[in-house]
UniProtKB/TrEMBL annotation:
InterPro entries: Asp/Glu-ADT_sf_sub_c (IPR036113), GatC (IPR003837). It comes from Candidatus Avitreponema avistercoris. The gene is gatC. The lineage of its organism: Bacteria, Pseudomonadati, Spirochaetota, Spirochaetia, Spirochaetales. GO terms for biological process: regulation of translational fidelity. This is Glutamyl-tRNA(Gln) amidotransferase subunit C. Pfam families: GatC.
Length: 103
């Protein structure tokens, strides 16, 4: 972001609203737009501290030779799962409700 255009256009901002499940009618878009600009500016500050070269070098790739063998191992039995948690019933774990509809 060194000197590049860091402004977010209207279409990108609308996409951000959609992805965050915010509607323009129920949200103070001016305040939100200012916050998004602050976030983008912060990435500009962070980029000044990035090292030279590939940023992914901090996480080296794993070669195929270093991966484990693809063999089937025994897992946990259902009886063991029932003893681990009270939230296991009829072969399923009970989990918190997920926001939004459908999978």
């Amino acid at each position: 972001m060194d000197g590049k255009n860091t402004q977010i256009d209207r279409e990108t901002f609308e996409n951000l609203l959609y992805l965050s499940r915010l509607s323009p009618q129920s949200t103070d878009t001016e305040t939100l737009a200012a916050q998004v600009r602050q976030i983008v500016d912060y990435f500009g500050i962070l980029s000044r501290f990035s090292g030279e070269g590939n940023p992914y070098d901090a996480y080296p790739a794993t070669t195929v030779e270093n991966l484990r063998d693809d063999t089937v191992l025994s897992g946990l039995e259902q009886q063991d799962l029932k003893h681990m948690t009270a939230e296991f019933m009829d072969g399923y774990f009970r989990v918190p409700k997920v926001l939004g509809g459908g999978a």
